[in-house]
Design brief:
It is built from 4 helices and 5 strands, in the order H-H-H-H-E-E-E-E-E. The chain is an alpha+beta fold. The protein folds into 2 domains: 93 residues; 64 residues, Beta Barrel (OB fold (Dihydrolipoamide Acetyltransferase, E2P)). Strands 1-2-3-5-4 form a 5-stranded mixed beta barrel. Strand 2 and strand 3 form a beta hairpin. The longest helix is centred in the middle third of the chain and has 29 residues. The model has no long low-confidence stretch (mean pLDDT 86).
Length: 179
Amino acid sequence: MWFGHPPEVVYGAVLVVSALLTVLYFFFSDVLDGLFDVADHPLFSPQLILSFFIVGSAVGLLAEWYTDWASSLVLWLAIGVALVAVLLLHFFVFLPLRSAEASLGYTDADLEGALAKVIVSVPPDGLGEILISRKSGAVAKAAKSANNEAIPSGEEVIIVQMENGVAVVARHDPYHLSI
């Protein structure tokens, strides 16, 4: 007897309450995020805590129903399985999702203001090529000079504007401050 009830009732109640809280958190997570920001460690996120209780209570309930093990052994089994499940969920689902970008695509407007390196010299009145390094990889684009000046290969440039897929670039001088 736990809390005056059989273990199956306690496991079932924890399972139902945790499942309901998970559904509520799914719909109201933006509002509720401020309440759960007490601990700033990713292992203390509401998703993982609720998952721990759901898995633990489900394993405990099933073990109480289908085995004749002692309730203390079932409790330790439930805690162990829930802990393993939550750690796997954290390291193989939540961490990769947290570090993934919302979209790997980009528009030409996203490239304006970005730094790039000239890989094919840009002549004063023609086209060269630049390499733009982004989180999702490197992108090569055709480029022309904004000031009609030659820009040698290896020079760092800033994309001033994108015109029909061609980057209009100017030399990047990190020490030139215009106030």
